[in-house]
Specification:
- The chain is of the alpha/beta class.
- The chain folds into three domains: about 5-250, Carbon-nitrogen hydrolase (Nitrilase/N-carbamoyl-D-aminoacid amidohydrolase), CATH 3.60.110; about 260-465 and about 515-520, Rossmann fold (3-Layer(aba) Sandwich), CATH 3.40.50.620; about 470-515.
- About 40% of the residues lie in helices and about 20% in strands.
- The chain has 17 helices and 19 strands.
- The strands form four sheets. The protein has a seven-stranded mixed β-sheet, covered by helices on one side. Strands 6-7-8-9-12-13 form a six-stranded mixed β-sheet, covered by helices on one side.
- Helix 9 (about 345-360) packs across helix 10 (about 365-385) and helix 14 crosses helix 16.
- The longest helix has 22 residues, at about 365-385.
- The protein is elongated.
- GO terms for molecular function: ATP binding; glutaminase activity; NAD+ synthase (glutamine-hydrolyzing) activity; NAD+ synthase activity.
- It is an enzyme of class 6 (ligase).
């Protein structure tokens, strides 16, 4: 029986970069041909990138994608390739084209259009009707697009048409439970159809989503033959044996650390790197407060871009502790970033001198605290403008959920790496990053100052302030938030699970009334199943409590 050699392009194909994506496909096709592959496979919407959103409403963009697929078809030269592109036929389809023999030999359209979570496919595409099957080197190969594998019918139709191997091209965004769900679906499809499955996924950061790759090979009996590492760009080689309906990975990169923290950390690093580089910034800037959120953000930024592209600024005020000053300086020096200390006290005092007459008769309150944060925001934005370095916001999901953040203050920034990371996860990531450093360089090594990890969290906007003056302990807060946000549990259900009634009501009220803040927050990489922004969209004005 036949053996089919495949080359799987687990690479980033950025949104809108039609010419660059076409050139990359051409290069990968050449490598595949030189490596003896008979079939090269590329991700969903390879040519346009995913998701192209309203670019799909522009006729010139669709025409450019069509020209690109025609150009690639002309250069196949003995190789077959499956390439994703937006196919315009008056209406637009999410398509996979089989390129072979110098032409577009076959086109199939995505049949199941997701319209939940981060997906908006029904806004742009019309559904396809059939699954495609073709013969390559004596093997009957079916191919479908992304969501089609999550329902039984498209794979069953391919199998009924004689497929022995089903190739699934994907642009499936990562979250912290996605890979396990994918494999469960793929195993089910293999067992239902008896077909082996090749699951190829896009990789790279795109605004508020991150694609992890995580390509998987599943044998016809449902056993997993191979897993590719997440967030690693690679041309992956594989062989399919039609006699046994089994797949074999050929020298795939090793997966070194499969822990939740390692994968989440890699996702955040990739999100930062791609957001900065794809938008053409020379580097990043952030306020380094001596707290754990900014310390973790600095570590992520250096791992993403290198120390020479990162600037950290400590902006002390009268309430800034010595621990914060020492922690920020120690981390900046250890990581080798450009570091500055700029006091906000004189600027804050100037603001207060102008405002005090209008504040007459009113007690000091959160207004003065917020003004400190906003003073820092003004200064950071000025530095960002002057040095053309994109400002990172350092807030986490716990804070954004309950509004424990200051508009035009610590919320300033164009990208927020921790926006979908709960505070308890911030601590776990920080400890994991230090452990990873210790494994490489010894027990005394660290990236995030241990004292910063162990200290009680504080905004340091007044004497002896801690976050728990305003919020429940983070382990309790995050547990309530996860139930309310990710699991969509009601307040009654959360209370029935054993949480204090008054605390639950208070936390939920804070989540609901702070939607207006979240609408004005910077984008950040999706890490959970219900990220704020394009995935969780609640009305600002609502009578539902």
């Amino acid at each position: 029986m036949a053996v089919l050699r495949l080359a799987l392009a687990q690479y980033d194909f950025p949104v809108g970069a039609v010419a660059a994506n076409t050139a990359k496909v051409r290069e990968m096709m050449l490598r595949a041909r030189e490596g003896g592959a008979s079939l090269a496979v590329f991700p969903e919407l390879t040519i346009s990138g995913y998701p192209p959103e309203d670019l799909l409403l522009r006729p010139s963009f669709l025409a450019a994608c069509q020209d690109a697929i025609q150009e690639l078809a002309a250069g196949t030269n003995g190789l077959a390739a499956i390439v994703g592109f937006p196919h315009s036929l008056g209406e637009v389809y999410n398509a996979a084209a089989l390129l072979r023999g110098g032409e577009i030999a076959q086109i199939t359209h995505k049949q199941i259009l997701p319209n939940y979570g981060v997906f908006d496919d029904k806004r742009y595409f019309r559904p396809g009707r059939t699954s495609a099957v073709t013969m390559i080197d004596g093997v009957r190969v079916g191919y479908i697009v992304c969501e089609d594998v999550w329902q039984a019918e498209p794979a069953a139709a391919a199998a009924a048409a004689g497929a022995e191997l089903i190739v699934v091209i994907n642009a499936s965004p990562w979250d912290d439970v996605k890979q396990a769900a994918r494999e469960e679906v793929l195993v089910a499809r293999a067992k239902e159809t008896g077909c082996a499955l090749v699951y190829l996924n896009l990789i790279g950061g795109q605004d508020e989503v991150v694609y992890d790759g995580g390509t998987v090979l599943v044998n016809g009996d449902g056993s997993v033959a191979a897993r590719a590492p997440s967030f690693v760009d690679a041309l992956l080689w594989a062989e399919f044996d039609a006699s046994s309906r089994t797949l074999r990975a050929l020298d795939w990169p090793a997966i070194e650390d499969t822990s939740r923290e390692a994968t989440l950390y890699a996702a955040l690093v990739r999100g930062i790197r791609d957001y900065i580089d794809k938008n053409g910034f020379s580097g990043i800037l952030l306020g380094l407060s001596g707290g754990i959120d900014s310390a973790l953000t600095l570590a992520l930024a250096v791992d993403a871009l290198g120390a020479d592209r990162v600037t950290a600024v400590m902006m002390p005020m009268r309430y800034t502790s010595q621990l914060s000053l020492e922690g920020a300086r120690g981390q900046a020096e250890r990581l080798g970033v450009d570091y500055h200390v700029i006091s906000v006290e004189p600027v804050y005092e100037a603001f207060m001198a102008q405002l005090t007459p209008v504040f007459a008769g009113k007690k000091a309150d959160v207004t003065e605290e917020n003004l400190q944060s906003r003073t820092r925001g003004v200064m950071l934005m000025a530095l960002s403008n002057k040095h053309s370095r994109l400002l990172l916001a350092t807030g986490n999901k716990s804070e954004m959920a309950v509004g424990y953040a200051t508009l035009y203050g610590d919320m300033c920034g164009a990208y927020a790496p921790l926006k979908d990371v709960y505070k308890t996860e911030v601590y776990r990531l920080s400890r994991w990053r230090n452990l990873a450093e210790q494994r490489k360089h010894g027990a005394d090594a660290w990236i995030i100052p241990p004292a910063v990890i162990e200290r009680p969290p504080s905004a340091e906007l007044r004497d002896n302030q801690t976050d728990q003056d305003s919020l429940p302990p983070y382990d309790e807060l995050d547990a309530i938030l996860a139930r309310f946000i990710e699991e969509e549990q009601s307040q009654a259900e959360i209370i029935a699970a054993g949480f204090d009634e008054n605390t639950v009501h208070r936390v939920v009220r804070l989540v609901l009334v702070n939607e207006f803040k979240r609408r004005q927050s910077a984008p950040g990489p999706r890490a959970t199943t219900r990220a704020f922004g394009r995935e969780r969209r609640y009305p600002i004005t609502s009578g539902w409590k």
